[in-house]
Amino acid sequence: MVKEFLAGAAAALLVFALLMDFNITPFLLLAGIAALAYWMIVKKGMLPTTIGGKSYTPLEKISFNSIGGQDTAITELKEAMEFMLRSKEIRAMGIRPLKGILLSGPPGTGKTLLAKAAAAYTDAVFLETSGSEFIEMYAGVGAQRVRSLFSRAREMAKQQHKKRAIIFIDELEVLGGKRGSHSSHLEYDQTLNQLLVEMDGLKTDSEVQILIIGATNRADLLDQALLRPGRFDRQVRVDLPDREGRLAILKLHTANKPLAAEVDLDMIARETFGFSGAHLESVTNEAAILALREKSPLITQKHLSEAVDKVMLGEKLGRKPSQEELYRLAIHEAGHAVVGEVLRPRSITRVTITSRGQALGYTRQKPEHDIYLYTREYLESQIDICLGGAVAETLIFGGRSTGSLNDFKEAIRLARVIITSGLSELGVIAEENLPPGQMHKASSAIITKEEKKVTELLKPYQQALGELAQQLLEKETVTGQELRSVLERQSIAS
Description:
The chain is α/β, with parallel strands linked by helices. The protein folds into 4 domains: 2-43; 54-237, P-loop containing nucleotide triphosphate hydrolases (Rossmann fold); 243-313, Orthogonal Bundle (Helicase, Ruva Protein, domain 3), CATH 1.10.8.60; 323-493, Up-down Bundle (Methane Monooxygenase Hydroxylase, Chain G, domain 1), CATH 1.20.58.760. 54% of the residues lie in helices and 10% in strands. It contains 19 helices and 9 strands. It has helices at 2-19, 25-43, 71-85, 87-92, 111-122, 141-159, 172-175, 187-200, 224-227, 243-253, 265-271, 277-293, 301-313, 323-343, 376-397, 405-420, 438-458, 462-475, 480-493, and strands at 54-56, 100-104, 125-130, 164-170, 209-216, 232-237, 348-352, 362-365, 477-479. The protein has a 6-stranded mixed beta sheet, with helices on both faces. The protein has a 3-stranded antiparallel beta sheet with strand order 8-7-9. Strand 3, helix 6 and strand 4 form a beta-alpha-beta unit. Helix 10 crosses helix 12 (277-293). It starts with a helix and ends with a helix.
């Protein structure tokens, strides 16, 4: 109404000025400048007091069925969405509806996709923004942007004739960090306070029902006022997928790709423990790129295995060590592989001396199943595998190289895990209460003991180390099956 009144008043003044023979050129120039400024500032979102959150229309058909590996999170989210879909029944039962849902978990696990699927599931308007978009150095700007975001959600819902709107805030820890932690200025606190006020003002009987979905991978940084009941009522953990989840994700991302008949996605799922959904999507994409590069009409197991290496370690490097260095590197990796295969039969899937990222070579293991709890025996066997490369160098060359640096770092880390978990001879301890040097002494004792064990283990396999190293020099990469063939030939010969 205000806009229409002002437009009518301006038109009346223009007609009056023409009738009175006034020169209206300066007024028209000023009006043009004002219109241009309005278009640039308001329509283009250049005004710092507006939020440019991206809108999303659920016409892309992003559904929960297109998200793999997150069955538990999907179930919890669907249950929460029922509060929006059955709002009348909820009110009749006297149930307080949910105002906010917090999705927490590592990067790349599908939090944004889950929020978009929730919008499609409830046929709601979807606004997507990030916590960093609210923070400015000028006081009051962030609070105004929060108000604008909620106003825009209501306006968009009315324009699209919908009764529901979902506001998705990624990187919520930036906007909702603990108050008082930013001592430089109070803009962070003011912005968070405004978000709390807006969430408190959400009503179930309003014309547009708004739900806030926040996403973070640092839930420990959030202010407790955000997490209390009545604001972010539900916290949904979006974890890294397990083996079955990884297999489901791989099937989703390879559905539109030409796979060879021999491709075993289950094996890839086993080898990618710790991969997120984003990592697995990258694996399938890199495999397709490799197939295209080789002009292969189908994606083979070799392409997928190579893609796992690339996502895990990076692209192959052009540097070429000398022949002497390559032989030492081959012996080193053969040591890792033999120890791993002897301690855990059929666990080694790939040994290579191809340089990738910071690694001159590497040995890849395939666990039988995902492991979340570790015994001392398991941790000690991992230390043994780490030490296998250095011990192999010592047996063949009589000394070690700097190639064992990262192996030693990992072995020390695992030894500290044994100690701090109460699995060592020290018993249950608090690390901060240990006398100076006690941690070093205890971890060194564990590593020294395991080094002697690995030395005795590898002594009978020196011939196999040499044969395996020769194959690595010739082909750069040896499969797990080829490794087992070498070990079987030695056992038959002995």
